[in-house]
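Observation: inputs received (chain + coenzyme A).
Thought: call the complex predictor directly.
Action: predict_structure
Action Input:
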Amino acid sequence: MIELRAAETDDELELWRSVRIAVLPNERTAPVAELRSGGGFMLLAFRDGELAGSGSASKSDIGGGAVTPRVLPAHRRRGVGAALLQQLARHAEECGHSEAGSMVDDAGSLAFAQRFGFSETGRQVEQVRPVGPDEPRPAVPDGIEVVTVAERPELLQRLYHELALQAFEDMPTPRKVEITLEEWKAEWLNWPEATFIALAGDEVVGMAGLNFDADQPDRAENTLTAVRRDRRGRGLARMLKETATAWASAHGIREIYTWTQTGNDNMRAVNERLGFFTRDMSISVRRALPL
Ligand SMILES: CC(C)(COP(=O)(O)OP(=O)(O)OC[C@H]1O[C@@H](n2cnc3c(N)ncnc32)[C@H](O)[C@@H]1OP(=O)(O)O)[C@@H](O)C(=O)NCCC(=O)NCCS
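Observation:
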């Protein structure tokens, strides 16, 4: 028998996290406090009393809803994913969304999504860089100064307005990313000491940084790397990412990973030159609601 239950208490949210960590072991899973502040609808699935899956319904950064059913491998092909998806999609619809998106990483999950009428809208590539113990800090070009968000917290708003919004406009996502300053800070800027800003005099011209992973502090995800349009093509992204890598190296991090849209050739080329290799691919899928 399949039973679905909203995850509300801390213990239930930890169960929710345990499924996500098992299904997506290479990725950071938000801690309970961050899940709560994200405001998503969190659902648990039990099969014959055993934890079998979890999922969430929330607002997507590219508009509409985002639904993410996940089932532990031992419980697949027993209808758990379908039960989760139906309730999550209903919730997204009740929130006023007329469509919903999700991500799938393997052929079986893509077959599941297609079975429920989702179709592909784009792809993301995961690139990974092992980090050695003595990564050198790069030279900083003349006229540029590198500071961290921890040192200059007053620059946060300007990072969002002058860099992040421009970068989101230029990303080849199926729809434009729409994210408020508050959401951006919560999702993309959880490690001020590891978020580097390039300044040219008083102008904010670039940023790159890392997101902290409390479950696995020896790995970190690259957050947004962005260079102001008029300053691109001069090695700033590379210098900022090397700065973040050197910082990671000195702070015990041994792996940095990053997700980039296919079509974002500039960012992927920068990463390849920095020693990143491709580990995984993820397909974005979408469909109209109701299911
Ligand atoms: C996708 C996922 C949630 C499916 O969970 P599940 O409990 O195994 O799915 P269900 O048993 O409810 O499958 C319902 C139908 O989807 C299709 N389907 C599911 N998995 C499939 C697979 N591996 N190959 C082909 N078809 C599949 C089948 O039509 C299936 O019905 P059937 O078993 O009667 O043939 C699970 O594989 C998973 O957690 N994947 C990783 C996370 C993810 O990608 N989520 C999907 C977001 S849309």
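Thought: report the result.
Final Answer: Residues 149 and 192 are 5 Å apart (CA to CA). Residues 80-94 form the longest helix (15 residues).
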